[in-house]
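Q: what sequence does this backbone want?
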């Protein structure tokens, strides 16, 4: 009991350390002054300027497009890799393949970005593709590192999944492809959805790797924000950050509410 006040203080300090900067960004997004050190009164002018900024709109649209495409391909490739690792227990090169899947998770992003840059330069020199660096190279780079996260999620889901249904279907004469499409993939849908969302978030948030493989005219939203912050924190950037925080908070709240509704529905079904 003597440690309880100390633990409470540590908890309060930890939450304050995490959330006070976020609340500061939100508060200064409504500051009428252009200076961060001076409060000029409550205003929505920076939100209006944010919606009128063509560069921010283009960067946001490009980031969403790249994130959606890379997340989709990363989910497909990562699911195949996870299935191979979980279901094909013994095949030549399995240990090497597993190490190659895990490598992007622990590799520093600077090394990954540099290696991809060298690869794209070599491909352009010897094969003529890709012609320059831009949205295509960013998408390929994001698929490369985000598919590893999807593979780990799918493999973990399959490791904790009972194979009785698959074995029963095979005993009843179902072909392997039918078992995969009718049983395995429907059971993997939550893991695939989680992997897609994680891959989308990683792609949308990436700065280091994107800065290595991008080119003129292909600025994603993180690159644009970083280029603006280097000159000083602009009030419209605070407004943009506040909108992103609001969208994330809304998504988390909605998901928690849906989970709670599903739990109540299951409780009602088991009770009656």
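A:
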């Amino acid at each position: 009991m003597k440690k309880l006040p100390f633990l409470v203080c540590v908890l309060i300090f930890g939450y304050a350390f995490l959330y006070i900067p976020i609340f500061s960004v939100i508060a200064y997004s409504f500051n009428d002054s252009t200076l961060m050190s001076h409060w000029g009164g409550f205003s929505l002018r920076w939100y209006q300027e944010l919606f009128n900024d063509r560069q921010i709109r283009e960067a946001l649209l490009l980031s969403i497009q790249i994130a959606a495409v890379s997340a989709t391909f990363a989910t497909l490739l990562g699911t195949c890799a996870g299935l191979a690792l979980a279901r094909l227990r013994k095949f030549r090169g399995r240990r090497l393949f597993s190490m190659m899947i895990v490598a992007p998770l622990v590799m520093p992003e600077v090394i990954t970005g540099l290696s991809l840059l060298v690869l794209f330069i070599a491909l352009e020199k010897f094969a003529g593709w890709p012609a320059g660096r831009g949205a295509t190279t960013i998408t390929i780079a994001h698929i490369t590192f985000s598919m590893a996260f999807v593979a780990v999620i799918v493999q973990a889901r399959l490791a904790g999944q009972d194979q009785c249904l698959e074995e029963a279907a095979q005993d009843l004469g179902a072909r392997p492809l039918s078992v995969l499409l009718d049983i395995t993939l429907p059971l993997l849908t939550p893991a695939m959805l989680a992997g897609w969302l994680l891959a989308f978030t990683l792609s949308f948030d990436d700065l280091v790797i994107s800065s290595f493989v991008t080119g003129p005219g292909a600025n994603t939203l993180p690159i644009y924000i970083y280029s603006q912050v280097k000159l000083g924190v602009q009030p419209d950037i605070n407004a943009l950050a506040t909108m992103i925080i609001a969208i994330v908070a809304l998504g988390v709240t909605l998901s928690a509410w849906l989970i709670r509704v599903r739990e109540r529905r299951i409780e009602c079904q088991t009770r009656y």
